[in-house]
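Q: I have 304 residues here and want to know how they pack in 3D. Can you give me a structure?
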Amino acid sequence: MPVLEVRPFRRADRDQLTDLVNMHVAAVVPGVSVSVNTVLGGLERQPGEFITDPWVAERTTLVAEQRGHVVAAAHLLRYRADGEVGEAYRDAAGIDWFVCRPAASFWPDADQAADLLMRACLARFARWDVRVRYADGALPAPLVYGLPRNWPHIRAVYERAGFRHVGDTEVVLITRVADLPEPEPRPGVSVERTLGECGTRLTACAGTRVLGFVEIDTGLARPERHPRAAGLADIGNLHVEPAQQGTGLEHWLLAQAGDWLRMCGVDRLAACETAGDGAGLDLLTSAGFRELTRTDRGWEHRPG
């Protein structure tokens, strides 16, 4: 077999890299893909990470190539060591994402390519001489972050290299907007639509008293992404006052959100909860959501 080569990303790799990224996205989120421009833009900056992205001092992308094909790729970040940087990120480096083909008859050396690329990542970390080394799987696509359970081949590469899961596990859920209930009148309660922290806020009000609210982010499909992501929205916040819990107000708010999303032309709604939040998961599943994947957040290099 031709020799594997690990080298810096070149612009000529852009189409193959995008195909590799979209293979991983498709295993996590149905009907979503990203464009070449999205992938290239994500190598330069992460506009959605408005807190941590300004802390990045250096970015580099490496690829493993065989027979003229990009079979694995990784994007690395080094954070500054000054006092403006948050403590957890100060003088740290991380694998922002790592993608590789799974071993198959056509790619029998896929594991070797992935391990060779990982060794190059660790060597880069050593040259940077950082305090701590992190890893993630944050591809530039909605709902793809942490290390999704749909990527056992990536998990195996991380664990062979000495990365360990030290953070939380989140459950990503999804439902068809058509399956959300139609909104029904709730005596004495009205809904107001305003701008919230995470998108459009629908607030349940009894006169001037706020009972609860839900925020819906319909901006997951940025213009540079493929239109196939346009039908996806996300629950940014869902909150009801303690006195209203268990009264059905949560489902009423989700029904209001469904009515708004149908007018927006959105056909799928996603939500995320920590795996240990049984009440939150029960609420969403009772409203028609089903588990899409589980993703393990917070990986740290702890060899030995």
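Q: Anything worth noting?
A: The two ends are 32 Å apart (CA to CA). The helical segments are 14-26, 36-44, 110-128, 152-161, 249-264, 278-286.
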